[in-house]
Amino acid sequence: MKRLVSLLLILAMSMSMLIFGGCGTSNSKTVGVAMPTKSLQRWNQDGENMKKALEAAGFTVILEYANDKVDQQVTQIENMITKGCKVIIIASIDGTALKGVLASAAKEGIKVIAYDRLIRDSGDVDYYATFDNYLVGKIQGDYIVKALGLDAGKGPFNMEAFGGSPDDNNAFFFNKGAMDVLQPYLDSGKLVCVSGQLKMEQIAIQGWKPEGAQARMDNLLTANYADKKLDLVLSPNDSLAQGVVASLKAAGYGSAEKPFPVLTGQDCDVINVKMMINGEQSMSIFKDTRTLADQVVKMTTAIMNKTDVPVNDTKTYDNGVKVVPSFLCAPVFADKDNYTKLLVESGYYTADQLK
Ligand code: BGC
Questions:
Q1: What's the CATH code of the domain at 31?
Q2: Which residue has a Cα nearest atom 9 of ligand 1?
Q3: Of 23, 303, 323, 354, which one has the greatest count of Cβ atoms within 10 A?
Q4: Residue in 117, 170, 328 to alter for ligand 1 test, most ligand atoms within 8 A of Cβ
C-alpha cells in the first residue's frame, strides 16, 4: 500500500512537472514580455494583447512592466532568463542599455525580439517588430502640409517642434519622417520656427513625459509668442501633445480670437481621441497594437518551430552592430472624421470609452 502511495505521488509530481515545468521554472514554451511602463495607455494594451495572443497560441507568458526604470527592466529580463524563457520580447526603455543582459540571454540560446523600439549596440537582438516609424513622421508632415494649405502656397505660419525621448531610437525616425516633408517649407519661409529650435538635442523630451512637454511649451510661449500667433506644433506622439495642450490652455488658447494651433500626435490614446473630438488636437496615428501583437506571435511561433521567421525589411534598422531583420506594420492616419470607423467600429475602443 505504502509503495502504491509513493508510486502515485511520483506519478503526480512528474505530471505536474510536465504541465507546469516544475521546480518553480516554466515549461519549454515560455515567452517573456518586457514592457517599459504602465503609465502610458499604449504599453498596457501592447502587453495585454500580446499576452492574450501568445497564450492563445499555446505559450506560457511572463509579462512585466518596468516603471520606466532601466535597472528594473534589466532585472526582469534576468528573471525571464532564469525562468527558462525561450523567446524574450522587449520594448526597451533605454535602447542602448541592454547589451549585457542580452549577452546572457544569447548564452542560453534565447532569441530576442525587439518590440516597437529598436535595441541598439548589441549583436544579440535577433528580430525587430514595429510600425514603420519613418512613415509615422511622414504622415504627420503630409497632414500639416494639407491642413495649413502649404501645398496651395499659403503661409507664412509660425511653428514649434517637439521630439521624443533621446534614448528611444524611434524618436529620430519620427522626426526625420516629418522634417523631410516640412524642411522645404522652412527653407522657403512658408514655415517659421520662431524659437529657432529644431534640432533633436533642443526639442527632445526625456521619457516622453507630458510634464516635460508642458514645461518646454510654457517657456516657448513666454519667450517667443507674447505678440505672435502660434499656428503649428509638431508633436511626435500623444503624451507630448497632452503636455502641449495643457500649456496652450493655460496661455489662453482655444478661443475664437486665439484658436488652437494645428497639433499632431500618435497612438490614439483615449485622452487624445477625446482631445481630437474637442478640437484641441488635430490628428493622431493609429498603431493597432493587435496587429503588432499578432505579428510578434507569428515570429515567436516560427522561432519555436525553427521555421522561417517572417520579416519584410532587412535594410532599415541598423542598431550600430548589425542590421536587425524587421517586420514593419503600417501606421494609419486618424482624426475626428475617421475615428469612429477606425477605433470604435473595429472594436478597439467602445463608444462609451470615448465619451
Ligand atoms: C512608441 C510610441 C510612443 C512612445 C512613448 C515610442 O517608442 O513608438 O508609440 O508614443 O514610444 O511611449
A1: 3.40.50.2300
A2: 267
A3: 303
A4: 170
Conformational region of residue 297, where left means phi above 0, alpha means psi within -120 to 50, and beta covers everything else: alpha
One domain for residues 246 and 101: no
Distance 219 CA to ligand 1 centre (A): 24
Pairing of strands 127-131, 332-334: unpaired
Mean per-residue pLDDT for 108-112? 98
Residue 265 CA to ligand 1 center (angstroms) comes to 10
**Is the residue at 334 inside a domain?**
no
Best residue among 211, 239, 267, 328 to mutate for probing ligand 1's pocket (most ligand atoms within 8 Å of CB) is: 267
Residues 164 and 277 in one domain: yes
Please tell me whether residues 297 and 310 are part of one structural domain: yes
Together in a domain, 179 and 59:
no
**For ligand 1, atom 5, which residue shows the shortest CA distance?**
208
Q: Percent of the chain at pLDDT above 70? A: 92
CA 352 to ligand 1 center in whole angstroms: 25
Count up the domains in the chain and report the number. Answer: 2
Q: Which residue's alpha carbon is at the smallest distance from atom 6 of ligand 1?
A: 170
Instruction: Find the helix packing angle between 238-250 and 270-277, rounded to 10°.
Output: 50
Residues 115 and 261 both lie in one domain: no
pTM equals: 0.91
Do residues 137 and 282 both lie within one domain? yes
Atom of ligand 1 nearest to the CA of 267: 9
Q: Is residue 13 part of a domain?
A: no
Q: Does a structural domain hold residue 337?
A: no
Q: What are the distances in angstroms from CA 346 to CA 324, 342, 354?
A: 32, 6, 14
Specify whether 140 is located in the same domain as 224: yes
- Centre of ligand 1 to C-alpha 25, Å, is 32
Residue 1: pLDDT band by 50, 70, 90 thresholds? low
* Cα–Cα separations (whole angstroms), residue 320 to 121, 186, 305: 5, 31, 29
